[in-house]
Amino acid sequence: MKEWSTILWFGRNNHNLPVVLDDMAAAVSWLAPSNNRYVILGMLNGAGAYEQVGGRVYRVLLEANEALQRVHNGHFLDIRSYLVSQANQNDPRDQADVAQDVVPSSLRSDSIHLNARGYSLVAEQVQRLLVELTR
What we know:
By secondary structure, this protein is mainly alpha-helical. The protein has helices at residues 17-31, 56-71, 79-85, 92-99, 116-133; strands at 6-8, 38-41, 76-77. The protein has a 3-stranded parallel beta sheet with strand order 1-2-3, with helices on both faces. Helix 1 (17-31) links the parallel strand 1 (6-8) and strand 2 (38-41). Helix 1 runs parallel beside helix 2 (56-71). The protein is globular, with a radius of gyration of 15 Å.
């Protein structure tokens, strides 16, 4: 199992920063050094008021993503920022979401979960990074 490509995407349901960092470090240490084919996805913020720009949860999630990127550089994928950048420029709901630095409505099935298009974009980015890691 350690030789498989691994996608680590967790912390969303428990965004306690020390716990997330410790859990991720444990997962990576179990994989490494025998496996370099792993991707760590950053956490997404939802459309709720606490998770938008300036909200308490927003700040915690961004701090967690920044810490994960710092510690796991090269394996970390800031999928949240990428998805925000994929907003439909002609959709007023998407533009309102971008103003709050939230994944656009056109890529979500509810306030936090992605829809098929959102997950397709995630898969494309994961594949791109896995190809880079195996060169």
